[in-house]
């Protein structure tokens, strides 16, 4: 049995790591922790398959490589009325790839820094060389890996239809199959943006059901600490704070550039924290991002069924938000932001008795999905969780605010008595555990 807590408007979720009177320094340290591995520099790992089981299929869900700003953000300025400035990035990779659209994707050089919006930066090839190295080092001794060839049915490639994802898919496949020569074109499957289950909104502030706002976002905006930060940001950056401005800081730092002198490290780190809080509001206080990700979950499940027909390697080139939404829907998201070229792997196994088992590996580390309760998950349990999101639909508003918490007696949660009783109600039901935020 587990307790279900509802009607709290996000207060409980954030209460676990927001103490009264927390300082800007404390917020800054949390911001650094969330994005500690964001840049994706020199990331290599080895995670051998499960011993005593046959690896039937591997799905690789990966983020694109390092990129320029994805939108024309108002990052900072030298004065209140001075021109808006952005990181002076440089893009020297070949002309962008295009796929099946009404017009080809083109790389523009009239944006600040000489990069188009979302263009891959020069470190992207090295990032995917490292990911390919990690995959080869982990699986090259398996029978599955020895049977792969990019031109036959065993490999399926998918990318969101934009420059950075298509180019990232190309970079990873090229490194993964280095030395192989394709006799025929290798297809990379895409969909128009509006039909793409992996092209999801990076910021959910309204219900996909009735358009109602995310209450936790409103609570953040009313927070005195947030207001103090926003005021400091305006004073030093000379632009009003926008929830996506954290991207200005990350792209600058990851490219090895320096921030404006007026924005010191502590203010920049605190900006990362508040940007993360705003981006995560819907993820942590509603089930709306899981509803949005339900079609992507369905696509993963469909490819798992293709394992019995010879589909051995599936690679999805997607975005950080999609990866977070998928993990959260499966109750395996621990608040660490996916870095450039980071990955989530789904390993499908056949056990000694023929049973089908699934293991999830994030950046080389096996993780436990709450919908399974253990690292090795029966495939039937995983499929049931995916099916549940397909059937959920738009639930009544009060259900959208419910959160499952770690299994335990309901009386234990009464110890959260510092939260006004009027803010919540409790009832017991069978459920799977959900880990609350761990960033402290």
Summarize the structure.
The protein has 440 residues and is α+β, with helices and mostly antiparallel strands. The chain contains 15 helices and 10 strands.
Task: Tell me what you see in this structure.
With 440 residues, the protein is α+β, with helices and mostly antiparallel strands. It is built from 15 helices and 10 strands. It has helices at residues 11-15, 24-34, 124-139, 143-146, 163-176, 215-222, 224-237, 246-254, 265-285, 288-292, 294-305, 320-329, 379-392, 397-400, 410-413; strands at residues 2-6, 54-63, 155-159, 313-318, 343-350, 356-362, 365-367, 376-378, 403-404, 425-429. Helix 2 packs across helix 9 (265-285), helix 6 packs antiparallel against helix 9 (265-285) and helix 11 packs antiparallel against helix 13. It starts with a strand and ends in an 11-residue tail after the last strand. The model is unreliable at 1-21, 95-112 and 396-440 (pLDDT under 50).
């Amino acid at each position: 049995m587990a307790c279900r807590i509802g009607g709290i408007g996000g207060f409980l979720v954030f209460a676990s790591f927001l103490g009264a009177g927390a300082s800007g320094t404390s917020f800054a340290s949390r911001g650094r922790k969330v994005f500690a591995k964001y840049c994706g520099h020199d990331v290599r790992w080895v995670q051998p398959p499960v011993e005593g089981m046959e690896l039937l299929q591997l799905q690789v869900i990966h983020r694109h490589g390092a990129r320029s700003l994805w939108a024309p953000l108002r990052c900072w300025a030298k004065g209140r009325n001075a021109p808006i400035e952005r990181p002076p990035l440089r893009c020297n990779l070949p002309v962008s790839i295009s796929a099946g659209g009404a017009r080809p994707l083109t790389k523009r050089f009239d944006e600040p820094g000489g990069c188009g919006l979302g263009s891959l930066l020069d470190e992207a090839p090295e990032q995917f060389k490292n990911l390919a190295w990690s995959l080869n080092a982990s699986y090259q001794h398996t029978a599955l890996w020895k049977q792969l060839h990019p031109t036959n049915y065993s490999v399926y490639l998918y990318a969101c239809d934009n420059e950075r994802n298509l180019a990232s898919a190309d970079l990873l496949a090229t490194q993964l199959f280095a030395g192989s020569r394709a006799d025929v074109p290798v297809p990379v499957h895409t969909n128009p943006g509006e039909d793409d289950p992996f092209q999801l909104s990076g910021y959910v502030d309204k219900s996909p059901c009735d358009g109602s706002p995310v209450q936790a976002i409103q609570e953040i905006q009313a927070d005195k600490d947030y207001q103090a930060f926003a005021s400091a940001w305006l004073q030093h950056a000379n632009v009003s704070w926008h929830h996506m401005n954290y991207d200005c800081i990350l792209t600058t730092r990851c490219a090895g550039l320096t921030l404006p002198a007026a924005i010191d490290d502590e203010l920049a780190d605190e900006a990362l924290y508040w940007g993360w809080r705003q981006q995560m509001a819907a993820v942590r206080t509603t089930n709306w991002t899981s509803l949005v990700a339900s079609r992507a979950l369905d696509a993963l499940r469909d490819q798992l069924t293709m394992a019995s027909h010879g589909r051995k390697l599936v690679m999805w080139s997607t975005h950080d938000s999609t990866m977070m939404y998928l993990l959260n829907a499966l109750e395996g998201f621990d608040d660490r932001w996916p870095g450039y070229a980071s990955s989530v792997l789904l390993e499908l196994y056949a056990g000694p008795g023929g049973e089908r088992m699934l293991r999830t590996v994030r950046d080389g580390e096996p993780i436990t999905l709450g919908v399974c309760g253990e690292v090795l998950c029966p495939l039937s349990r995983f499929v049931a969780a995916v099916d549940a999101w397909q059937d959920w639909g738009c639930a009544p508003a009060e259900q959208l605010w419910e959160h499952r918490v770690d299994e335990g007696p309901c009386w234990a949660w009464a110890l959260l008595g510092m939260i006004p009783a009027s803010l919540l109600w409790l009832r017991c039901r069978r459920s799977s555990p959900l880990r609350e935020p761990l960033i402290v």
